[in-house]
Amino acid sequence: MRSMARNDPRQYDELADQWWRPGGSFEMLHWLAAARAALIPPADRPGAVLVDAGCGGGLLAPHVGGKGYRHVGVDLRREGLRQAAEHGVRPVNGDVTALPIATGAADVVAAGEILEHVTDLPATVAELARVLRPGGLLVLDTVNDNALSRFITVTAGEWLGFAPPHLHDPALFVRPRRLIAEFARHGVRVEVRGARPTMTGLFRWRVLRRERTGGRIVRSGLTTVLYQGTGRKEGERS
Ligand SMILES: C[S@@+](CC[C@H](N)C(=O)[O-])C[C@H]1O[C@@H](n2cnc3c(N)ncnc32)[C@H](O)[C@@H]1O
Q1: pLDDT by residue (tens digit) across 117-166?
Q2: From ligand 1's centre to the CA of 74, what distance in Å?
Q3: What pTM did the predictor assign?
Q4: Which of the residues 17, 72, 91, 150 has an alpha carbon 20 to 30 A from that of 45?
Q5: What is the chain's Cα-based Rg?
Q6: Residue 27 counted as domain residue
Q7: How many CB atoms lie within 10 A of CB 100?
């Protein structure tokens, strides 16, 4: 893995057995998926579409399964998509900087732990906004860009096992202000709030090595490291 550059998405293939492994390397992604899903209301029409950008192994699926959406997952890596499909996600192989999805097709766009991995943030934001229908909901979570977030996510995080080594390139982390401005250019007004994992969950996961960690993502007064965002695209549904 170290032979690959930081953030090389091929690393997800080598980690593919971790997507659904209880207490595995992606444990915290499960907590994040549950917290993201809590921001998504039930579908307000039959056939509503949820586009899950950078869906990975489809960890969002169990949390939105009863909400009435067609859950479409887009990802670069096919092994993640295969596992996502096993959990009811309709898999689409593609790049979030050029989504193979029709304009205005999505009632909800979920961008969970993807914005800190893209090398072209303006193109990604433009695409997420393009596929969102007028009045549609954007839900995101990502990592802030500052010395503390780099230390916690990369320096300490990789050492302690909260994040697999080399998966993050801190140069791609995103400040909320920048994200808000990018989405505003495309008619999506985003509000952000801080989030953090529970300490007991982290302890059970990394120290006690439990498979059942009971970990959760809870609200934090600070957006310094991890933050969630929601936004509505301007306009009325036609
Ligand atoms: C940290 S994982 C997050 C997965 C999922 N959203 C979750 O929260 O469980 C990032 C995912 O984004 C995918 N990815 C990275 N860059 C991408 C791109 N440009 N287009 C589509 N998928 C991408 C990776 O293959 C990986 O599955």
Answers
A1: 999 999 999 999 999 999 999 999 999 999 999 999 999 889 898 888 89
A2: 8
A3: 0.96
A4: 91
A5: 17
A6: yes
A7: 11
Q: How far is the CA of 56 from the centre of ligand 1 (A)?
A: 5
Residue 5 maps to a domain: no
CA of 238 to the centre of ligand 1 (A): 31
Give the ligand 1 atom nearest the CA of 59: 9
Task: For residues 27 and 102, give the distance between their C-alpha atoms in angstroms, rounded to a whole number.
Answer: 32
Round to whole Å and give the CA distance between 87 and 201.
24
> What total of structural domains would you count in the chain?
1
Query: Which amino acid, one-letter code, is at 47?
Result: G
Residue 213 lies in a domain: yes
Domain that holds residue 67: 11-233
**What is the residue-wise DSSP string for 183-236?**
HHTTTEEEEEEEEEE-HHHHIIIIIS--S-----EEEES--SSEEEEEEEESS-
Q: Residue 238 falls within a domain, yes or no?
A: no
Pocket of ligand 1 (CB under 6 A): 9, 12, 29, 32-33, 54-56, 59, 74-77, 80, 95-97, 112-114, 117-118
Q: In which band, very low, low, confident or very high, does the pLDDT at 3 lie, cut at 50, 70 and 90?
A: confident
Give Cβ neighbours of residue 208 (< 8 Å, ≥ 6 apart).
Answer: none
